[in-house]
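Recall that a protein's primary structure is simply its ordered list of amino acids. Everything else, from secondary elements to tertiary packing, is in principle encoded there. The following example makes that idea concrete.
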Amino acid sequence: MKTFIHHRLTNCLLHKKPLINILIAILLMIISNIPVYAATNSAYRPELVAPRAVLMDAETGTVLYNKNAGEITYPASTTKILTALVVLEHASLEDVIAIDYEPGVTGSSMYIVPGEAFTVETLLKGLLIRSGNDAAEILARHVSGSVEAFVALMNQHAASIGAVNTHFTNPHGLPDENHVTTAYDLALIAREAMKNEFFREVVSSPSLIIPPTSETDQRVYHNSNRFLWGKGPSHQMMYQGLYTNIYYEPVDGIKTGYTHSARNCLVSSAQFNDSRYIAVVLNAEQENVYSDSRTLLDYGLQYFHRIQLVEDGTQMAMVTVVQGDDEAVPLVTEGSIEQIVPRNILPSDIIMDIQLPEDDLVAPVEQNAILGHVRYYYGDELLGEVNLVTDNAVEAIPVYQQISWGYYATVALGIVFILWQVFVFRLRQKKRKHRRLQRARRYQRSESFD
């Protein structure tokens, strides 16, 4: 329902109907459900020029910065991230595609002509490095038989990873009023794509060389992402008041985009030690797309760090077990929790909340049974949670084995005491009877004397 509303509203917004623009913007902000990390309590917040942007931790999916990241907009060629992801899922890199038609797609191109043949691997490189629109269409037809069927796969895949406000109508990103997404959705798509080793390898390549074919000489292309190679006077940007190279060593991908309606778009990834950040900047003007992206990436590097809240298998509690071969069972964490937090958060600021069974357990108890959980908070912000499971099984024991030797000793003493009492009672009874007999005999003797 939310996706439908977004798509209907965005048609009005992108066509700039002035009477309802303000209402639409407010409504889009209300219905956009982006999980932003509330513990980002640093006094510093980056100021960006671009109207829409997001910074995401690739490991956890935590949003560290959000500027209108849920607003519907045009993505241009950043679309091709999802195109590549779907192709990698449904085709083999070794597949050879013979071109027997003129692709006929405008915009950036590999200039593929009929009579050429390429592997899926080569076309994916052309798609992501050269940003070839013709490669996008050829790959789509190879996977699904038609562009329309392939686009349906793209939208299904987007929804499956949580990009519910994405609706694509083509595999390349050329303008279409119904071809829309959000900065947040693109971050989710990029995060998923960067899990693929081949994808990471391609989008980090500064250039592409395609050997000559029977129809075309050797092709040499620079990656459209100048973060990977942009050095020198013609590849400068203003950053923190100084002109500097666009090239930025930590960046290892991933995709640019430009159309007149989308303006400059860039999805970028950077690796800093043990953390990877994904920055999405949309609808920027000229080199601002690079300066804004670097601002976000540096924000992640300088103001956040990764901490391990708990390791897998950590013992958190002992729970009493009755009628079992063990008197207690340890509860351990079912997995580890890592989270990215602002650098000014101290370990003492994090609160641990453990939920355990209220009653003792009754054997038998299975191993890995979920019996509780532990949550970690910073203030009211939930940083992570994990189940607590039994570290081992506890078997039930027969009833007679459940009784202690002390119990048996008590019972035995009780029986001895009862037998002793019976014996004493019988002895007293016998003595009384004997005395009665003696009195009777004495009485009889006295009667006979009389």
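The chain has four domains: 1-31, 36-306, 311-399, 404-449. Residues 311-399 form a domain with the Peptidoglycan synthesis regulatory factor (PBP3), Domain 2 fold (CATH 2.60.410.10).
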